[in-house]
C-alpha cells in the first residue's frame, strides 16, 4: 500500500468514523464502535489494508477493541458518541495551536469545541504547533491546566494522547 493510498483511506476513515457514517451506510454504536467487517465492506478495502492504515497512522487516530472485531476513531467526533473515557489529571500546562485571526474571539470567549465534542489540547508545543499550522501560521496558546483542575474543570485523555475538555475560559489562557 503506497503512502498516497494510506492517507486517502485514513481520511475516508476519519470522515466516516467521526462525522458522516451514514454516507457509506454504516452505523456507529453509542461509544463510536463499528464492526470491522462492515467498515471494510463499506470502504471496499481489505482487512490487511485496514490494519496497515491503523498501524501506520501518524496520530494513531483509530483503535480496535479488545476483540479486534470493532473499530472506532479515538477522538475528533462531531456525531454524538460517548467514548467512555475516565476523567484524568492533566499535566500542569497544556497547549493549543490556532491562528492569529481566531485570537480576538478566543481571548474574549475562551476556547470552545466548535464542531467537535471537546476542545483539543496538546501536552507539548510541537504537537500544538502542528495542529495550528493546518490553518496557517500557527499561534500557540498556553493553558493553565493545573488551575483549571483546581477550579473543578474535568479533562479526559484520548487513546492517542489528545487532552480533551469542554471549554477553556479566557482567564486560563495566555499567548506563548
Ligand atoms: C478555533 C486534528 C473562534 C480553534 C488536530 C481551532 C487536532 C475558536 C478551530 C484536532 C474558538 C476548531 C482538533 C472561539 C476555538 N472562537 N475560534 N471561541 N475556540 N476556536 O479542527 O483544535 O488530524 O475543531 O483554535 O490535529 O484545530 O483530525 O480543532 O482552530 O488534534 O486527527 O476553532 O484535529 O486532528 O478547529 O483540531 P478544530 P483543532 P486530526
TrEMBL record:
Belongs to the KptA/TPT1 family. It is an enzyme of class 2 (transferase). Removes the 2'-phosphate from RNA via an intermediate in which the phosphate is ADP-ribosylated by NAD followed by a presumed transesterification to release the RNA and generate ADP-ribose 1''-2''-cyclic phosphate (APPR>P). May function as an ADP-ribosylase. SUPFAM superfamilies: ADP-ribosylation. The keyword Coiled coil does not apply. The keyword Transferase applies. Its EC number is 2.7.1.-. Keywords: NAD, Transferase. This is Probable RNA 2'-phosphotransferase. Signal peptide: none annotated. It comes from Allokutzneria multivorans.
Amino acid at each position: 500500500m503506497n503512502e498516497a493510498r494510506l492517507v486517502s483511506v485514513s481520511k475516508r476513515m476519519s470522515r466516516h468514523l467521526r462525522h458522516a457514517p451514514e454516507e457509506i451506510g454504516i452505523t456507529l454504536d453509542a461509544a463510536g464502535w463499528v464492526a470491522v467487517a462492515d467498515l471494510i465492506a463499506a470502504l471496499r478495502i481489505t482487512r490487511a489494508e485496514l490494519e496497515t492504515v491503523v498501524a501506520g497512522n501518524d496520530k494513531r487516530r483509530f483503535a480496535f477493541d479488545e476483540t479486534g472485531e470493532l473499530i472506532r476513531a479515538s477522538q475528533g467526533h462531531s456525531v454524538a458518541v460517548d467514548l467512555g473515557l475516565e476523567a484524568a489529571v492533566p499535566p500542569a500546562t497544556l497547549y493549543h495551536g490556532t491562528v492569529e485571526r481566531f485570537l480576538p474571539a478566543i481571548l474574549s470567549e475562551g476556547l470552545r469545541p466548535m464542531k467537535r465534542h471537546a476542545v483539543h489540547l496538546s501536552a507539548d508545543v510541537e504537537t500544538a504547533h502542528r495542529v495550528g499550522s493546518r490553518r496557517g501560521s500557527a499561534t500557540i496558546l498556553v493553558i493553565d491546566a493545573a488551575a483549571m483542575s483546581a477550579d473543578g474543570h474535568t479533562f479526559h485523555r484520548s487513546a492517542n494522547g489528545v487532552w480533551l475538555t469542554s471549554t477553556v475560559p479566557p482567564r486560563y489562557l495566555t499567548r506563548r
